[in-house]
Design a protein that fits this description.
The complex is a heterodimer of chains A (178) and B (305).
Chain A lengths: L6 H6 L11 H19 L8 H13 L2 H18 L8 H17 L7 H25 L10 H22 L6
Helix pairs in contact in A: 2-3, 3-4, 3-5, 4-5, 5-6, 6-7
Chain B lengths: L5 H26 L4 H36 L3 H21 L1 H17 L5 E9 L7 E4 L12 E4 L2 E9 L4 E5 L6 E6 L5 E5 L6 E3 L13 E4 L11 E9 L6 E6 L8 E5 L16 H4 L4 H8 L6
Antiparallel strand pairs in B: 1-2, 1-12, 2-5, 3-4, 3-12, 4-5, 6-7, 6-9, 7-8, 8-11, 9-10, 10-11
Helix pairs in contact in B: 3-4
The chains are: A mainly alpha (178), B alpha+beta (305).
């Protein structure tokens, strides 16, 4: 088969699977969850950020392995569930972040997601999808009405995407040199 | 047996993991349990870091305020700022004199009439890890006498209710959470209606009939009917009123600054607080208005199950 017509193989040649220093992923996760539960005490506006989601997206896009991506997403989501109080059942964030981890890894394996514009757009997309899954879970499984969309969520998507661009640049430094 | 193609393995894993979590959700709903053991482990692992963070931030802030910030400020600037602050304080004191007197009288009254109610101060060491709930973590737990369903207040007003008490920490569901609620009434007219969270900064007062007269700026206080919070604690002020069917749509701005809580008071009692006998208010129009709200407020739990 002529390689010139094999789009998939030619594009995949340029996509690198990034590896990280030992303990970097775990340390980043713990730090993100800690900041998420700590900073809003002093800066209430920070509550609009979903750092665990951004971390799930980043490591999904970088590791590019759907299995590890979804397991990482599930772990982060379940920890977030258990830190969110008994009104949030275990599995609410877990399901949403499992799907996001899987999709981020799958997209990361097919597209070059290193450009800040791509990262911005993907974060907006994943934020919306994450919210959609949470609303769907609440409506269908928990019978709790929740709005699909409001201004606060739109602002949240934008803010998270902007933070993601800079956060991802910072996290790029944790990568092992190829 | 036909093996799963490697490219589909992750998809199968995804389906399996989601199904497992859906089952986990179903179990929690069916058994009405919230995976307490997992939460105890997680909170136990995180709370030492939260405590350290709070004390660390407090230490840094004190150092900054008492040394670095002063070092870089000129004496003249400091003097002007000081005078300006004094003037502002005087103006603020004059303006809020009446309100402050009311509030202090209320607190004094509360303390006097509930001297037997044990209370404990607690420091906020954490907040909800996501936007799906509005909770805070306190540095007091079961070993300090804190138990599930205890009321939490500040001198400004009602904060929420303890929803989980661990050994050294506890979680409080804020009044702004969608699952939260408190028996309340208008301070002047005594019109009753449960006030609940909406997930947004403003609260919602329910079951107030369209015929009842409610004005923007009116104070809302606890009715004591939920048997968790004593009567006449500030809940908030009416911020928006819209006619609805069949009840008014009333939004209430919380009295306590729920977005910036650093210290709170936990009411260390699970028995219903005794209510004082108070003279009937002079305004007969609304005092007698035992709207459907009254009935609802009477039975309104502080937090919906």
């Amino acid at each position: 088969m002529n390689d010139a017509f094999d789009i998939r193989s030619s594009s995949e040649l340029h996509i690198e699977v990034h590896k990280f220093h030992t303990g970097a992923i775990l340390a980043t996760l713990v730090l993100a969850l800690f900041i998420q539960a700590f900073l809003p005490i002093y800066f209430p506006q920070v509550a609009i950020l979903d750092l665990p989601l951004l971390i799930t997206i980043y490591f999904g896009l970088s590791r590019r392995n759907p299995s590890t991506g979804l397991l990482l997403g599930m772990a982060i989501g379940l920890v977030q569930d258990s830190l969110s109080g008994p009104t949030v059942p275990l599995g609410l964030y877990g399901i949403a972040k499992t799907v996001i981890g899987y999709l981020a890894s799958s997209i990361g394996a097919r597209l070059d997601t290193e450009h800040p514009a791509a990262r911005f757009a993907l974060t907006v997309l994943f934020f919306g999808l994450h919210q959609g899954i949470i609303v769907l879970t609440r409506r269908i499984l928990l019978a709790q009405p929740e709005p699909w969309f409001n201004l606060h969520l739109a602002i949240g998507a934008g803010v998270n995407a902007i933070v993601a661009v800079f956060l991802f640049m910072l996290l790029d430094r944790l990568r092992k040199p190829s | 047996m036909v093996g799963i193609p490697s490219r589909h393995k992750s998809l199968v894993l995804l389906a399996g993991v989601i199904v497992l979590q859906v089952l986990l959700l179903a179990v929690q709903i069916k058994r009405d349990s919230q995976g307490r053991l997992i939460r105890v482990w997680t909170v136990g692992a995180v709370s030492p870091f939260q405590r350290a963070g709070v004390y660390g931030v407090g230490h840094i802030r004190d150092t900054w305020h008492h040394y670095f910030a002063l070092q870089n400020t000129s004496r003249e600037n400091e003097q002007l700022r000081h005078e300006n602050g004094e003037l502002k304080m005087q103006i603020a004191q004059l303006q809020s004199k009446a309100a402050e007197a009311d509030r202090l009288a209320m607190l004094l009254n509360f303390r006097k009439s509930h001297e037997d109610v044990p209370m404990i101060g607690a420091r906020v060491i954490g907040a909800s890890a996501g936007t799906a709930s509005q909770t805070i973590d306190l540095d007091r737990g079961e070993r300090d006498g804190v138990r599930k369903n205890m009321g939490v207040i500040t001198p400004d007003g009602v904060v929420g209710k303890v929803v989980e008490a661990y050994q050294g920490t506890s979680q409080v569901l804020l009044l702004t959470d969608k699952d939260s609620g408190v028996g309340a009434m208008m301070a002047d007219s005594r019109i009753q209606g449960p006030v609940g969270g909406t997930g947004e900064p403003l609260l919602s007062m329910k079951y107030v009939a369209n015929d009842d007269i409610v004005n923007i700026g009116q104070r809302v206080v606890t009715s004591g009917m939920d048997r968790i919070f004593p009567r006449d604690l500030p809940v908030g002020t009416v911020a928006e009123i819209k006619p609805g069917n069949p009840f008014k749509l009333i939004r209430v701005r919380p009295a306590a600054n729920l977005e910036r809580l650093e210290e709170v008071i936990v009411l260390l009692t699970l028995r219903p607080l005794e209510l004082k006998k108070e003279p009937e208010p002079a305004n007969p129009q609304s005092s007698g208005a035992q709207s459907p709200a009254a009935t609802a407020a009477d039975s309104a739990p502080a937090v919906k199950p």
